[in-house]
Amino acid sequence: MKTKTFILTLLLMLLFTATTLAAKPTITADQQYFDINTGLYVLNGNVYIEVKNRVITADQAKVNMGSLEVWGNGNITVKQDDIFFTADSVYVYGAQDRAIVEGNVHFTRTNLNVIANRVDYNWRDKNAQFTDNVQIQQNGNSWSADTVKYNIITDTFL
C-alpha cells in the first residue's frame, strides 16, 4: 500500500511539474525585480513576455508567475500568429486564456482593421468582443458600432 501511494504521489508530482514547465513564460526587460510584498515580478523598459507562442510587449508590466496573470501598460502589443493588437494597457488572465486590452485598441489581421477603446479576447473560443467607439475596415468596407463580436477562426463578425 505504501509503495502504491508513493508511486501515485511521484506520478502526480511529475505531471504537475511537466504542466508547470510547459506554461513557463520567457520574460525579459531592461529592469526587473521580484516584489516580495505583492509576489509579483515588476518589469520596466522593453518588456517582452512570451507564453505558448503569445507575445506581449510593454513599457512596464507586473507578472504573477503562479497564475500567469500580466498587468501591462504603455505601448502594448499582443501578438499570436496573424493576430495583432496594440493598445495602452493589457490585463491577461493566464489561467482563463483571456486578455482585456484597453485604450486606443487597434487590431489588425489580413484584410481587417478594427479600432476600439476596449477588447476582451478569449484564446479558448477565439472570440474578440470589441466595445466603445468601434470602427471596422474589412475587405474595402467600413462601418462603426458600439460593440461587435469577432471570431478569429471563422473570420466573421457574430
From TrEMBL:
The stretch of residues making up the signal peptide is 1-23
Q: Quick check: keyword Metal-binding in the entry? A: no
Disulfide bond keyword on record: no
MF terms (GO), sorted A to Z: glycolipid transfer activity
* Superkingdom of the organism of origin: Bacteria
- Pfam families in the record: LptD_N
Could you tell me the keywords of this UniProt record? Signal
- What do the Gene Ontology cellular component annotations say? cell outer membrane; outer membrane-bounded periplasmic space
Q: Biological process GO terms, please?
A: lipopolysaccharide transport
Task: Give residue ranges for domain Organic solvent tolerance-like N-terminal.
Answer: 27-154
**PANTHER family linked:** LIPOPOLYSACCHARIDE EXPORT SYSTEM PROTEIN LPTA (PTHR36504)
- Would you tell me the protein name for this molecule? Lipopolysaccharide transport protein LptA
Give the lineage.
Bacteria, Bacillati, Bacillota, Negativicutes, Selenomonadales
